[in-house]
Write a structure and sequence with these properties.
Layout (H helix, E strand, L loop, with lengths): L13 H19 L8 H9 L25 H12 L19
Length: 105
């Protein structure tokens, strides 16, 4: 310490940089997480291409526009989720609908 000379104070920003990096990584990671059993427009399109009468989400869901955290399935959708689990598949494959027993009645 020198008398008459003000003391320099050095402030490190490493804490705030680390916090920002953690927030960015969490946000990016959250965007990469995808629910494997949630339907997509591609699934509906593929079902139509395969000849299934999938006009909207009600073909497999209990609501016309399912919300991510409040999805319900009708019997067909429950069957597809059961098939996904039984086959240990990552995603539902709408081609399995050819084996859906209720459509064969």
């Amino acid at each position: 310490m020198n008398p008459g000379k003000p003391e320099e104070v050095v402030v490190s920003n490493s804490g705030s940089r680390l916090g920002l990096a953690a927030v960015l990584l969490a946000g990016i990671g959250g965007m990469l997480v995808v629910s494997p059993s949630s339907a997509t427009m591609n699934m509906q399109k593929k079902a139509k291409e395969l000849g299934f009468p999938s006009e909207n989400c009600l073909y497999c869901h209990g609501e016309k526009m399912p919300k991510k955290d409040a999805v319900t399935y009708n019997d067909r959708g429950k069957w597809l989720v059961d098939q996904k689990n039984a086959r240990k598949a990552k995603d539902v494959d709408v081609a399995w609908l050819k084996d859906y027993p209720a459509d064969k009645k």
